[in-house]
Amino acid sequence: MVINMSELGKLSVPDNISFLTSGFLSSTHHFYSNEEGQGDLVLSLAHSVPLYPQRLHIGIGGMQNLDMIAVRRTPYALIVDIDPEIVRFYEDIGKIFEEQDTATKEIFEEKLSREKKYDYKGALESAYSWLQDPDKFDHIRRMFREHRIIAIHQDIRNNDTLNSIADWMQRHDIALDTFYI
């Protein structure tokens, strides 16, 4: 994984991480969390003070990661998921923001809802969602436009994957901000 520090950082996938081509067995895709207490988690994250300016969020799954990133104002994010649909979901979000640099929440929701495969209704109903707050929405939009959120199709349970990410973080003096699994 490479960070170009002179541009405030664009993330790219590490050369030493191989992508999965199969192995995902579920037909259920979690574009938003099905967990109880997600709002409490986001609130607790909002009250903790970041200690380092160069921080990375690592997470699996759908838009709940964006809620955490938005409330923490995390500068970089890496989504690692075994489900290729989750990776495509993040890629599609990025494309929407690339195509329209002034995309509003309404434009974003309309474009994403055209993709019938994505069920992110929970994000629209949650008072804690990044979609409900203009400042959080702008932060996430900016991160996607600046390529500071990337998603890779990989199994987080693989020690080689975690070691590669940890090595990259150490080489670039990036601190772990949040780790959501």
Keywords, separated by commas or semicolons:
40% helix; globular; two-stranded antiparallel ribbon; 181 residues; alpha/beta; 7 helices; 4-stranded parallel sheet; disordered N terminus
| Count of alpha and pi helical runs | 7
Residue fraction in strands = 5-15%
Mean pLDDT: 74
Task: Outline the low-pLDDT stretches.
Answer: 1-9, 16-32
Helical content stands at 40-55%
The biggest sheet amounts to:
4 strands, parallel
Instruction: Give the overall silhouette.
Output: globular
Structural class by secondary-structure content: alpha/beta
- CA-atom Rg in angstroms: 16 Å
Order of helices and strands: EEHEHEHHHHEHE
Distance between the termini: 20 Å
Query: What is the topology, as strand order, of the major beta sheet?
Result: 5-4-3-6
The number of distinct β-strands equals 6
Give a description of the structure.
This protein is 40% helix and 14% strand. The protein has seven helices and six strands; from the N terminus they run ββαβαβααααβαβ. The strands form two sheets. A four-stranded parallel beta sheet has the order 5-4-3-6, with helices on one face. Strands 1-2 form a two-stranded antiparallel sheet. Strand 3, helix 2 and strand 4 form a beta-alpha-beta unit. Helix 1 runs parallel beside helix 2, helix 2 packs across helix 6 and helix 3 packs across helix 6. The N terminus is likely disordered.
